[in-house]
Amino acid sequence: MQERYIATVDLGTSKLALCVAKVVGENVQIIYYKERPSVGIRYNSVYNPKKAAGPLRAAIAEAEDELQIKILQVVVGLPRYNVRQETASAKIDRSDSSTLIEDEEISNLKNMALDSYPLTDGNKELIYGAVPQSFSTDDVIGGEEDVVGTSSDSLTGNFKIFVGKKKAVSNIDIMLNDAGVALAQAIFPPAAVGEAVLKTDEMANGVALLEMGAGVTSVSIYQGGIMRYFAYIPFGGKSITTDIRLECAFDDNLAENIKLAFGACMPEKLQTMADKVLQINDEENGTYENLPVKYLSEIITSRCREIINAMLFLIQESGFADRLRCGIVLTGGGANLVNLGNMIKEMSGYNVRIGFPLASRFSSDGCPGIGEAEASTSVGLVLEAATDPYLNCIEEAVKPEPEPEPEPVVTATEEKEVKPEPGDLGTLFKTEDFGKVEKKIKKIQPRKTEKVKPVKPPKESKPPIIWTKIGKIFNEGFDGLFGDIYDEMGDNKEGEQ
User: Fold this and answer.
1) pTM given for the model
2) Mean pLDDT across the stretch 33-40?
């Protein structure tokens, strides 16, 4: 099976989370997850694309360096703020009632419902997503799995659609362009988060998913395995941090760190922790302030009580308050507040559990933080995007350049003279060198030859007599030489007489 990669970005009010997963068939393995503070984002929506692009650009560069990959595009979650839900329906008349209904017809029906829905202002609004609610044929009324495979003259579908601001999506595009990546998919997160943290029996029997982020707290209600309702309020963990900052005269960073380290609800249930006092030192002025943990908990509890009351009101408005057999599942970064789950249970009467990403739906290899409640959105986006078999956010693995091999050191004992056999050129040239030599030979032009005058041999000169005699000594011996001398002397004597 082909290996592909998916990169997702969770744009939060206080943090930006980048997640990378490797997908092979139906197996999803998350290989990277990191968070960093975000800027330019308010109420889960990008309002300053230029500022928001900075942390995203740094996050992508860090992931590429660590994983040795090149991220070309990312999957982004759409805002939960300023979103309203509407209903839409569509109907098709099938030409051949004897054929069975297929998944493609369900998809076409959904597109028809989205295209035909009349937006109040098409220049300012955009449909973020749609969730099928029910389908009906001549004989069957039910979900998608009930009508696929049946035969009918007509097919009708009812959908829950979510309409949001068009500018919020255009700001995401500007931010991604500034960060140097493309938009692969834009997903409305509530349904995706439900797939990541909710069990199958919870979605079937009725459950309210409470997601408490930094800027927005939302509620999604599931019944019969389908998301039936969505609503939000513009309050979350950031509101709690602001209350601490204003009440104690701290800066934002100090207030956030105190909330994360010592934040808790219901001060009457803190037991010995309520008696502790935090000493806040001011290094510039050399002074300090005392902050009782009980007082800190009272500040947090007041804001949490307001948020919970608003959520319970929305649940009542949904019409499903009496059908939540599995109670409430609390997820998001705000779920880390101590005693928040107990406070919701006490105020609502529902069973409450903390929703962590279900490990049975993905695997992870040493990714710290991926199993926490604040990573629910990232995991949900990965699982939703993985259903597209053609989506691949990464170009290819970037292989580091190989280091040059060191030249072998030849010792004196290893030096050998290579003597080629007669007619054997293989020991003198490599096979690949013959082509190079042949090309070089073709490039060599013959030189012009000049006529050379022949050189006359020197005239022979006769050696002197003395050298002739000496040569005769060696050739004929001394006797011959002196014999000639004696003969000459005898001739001379006869002449004298």
Assistant:
1) 0.77
2) 95
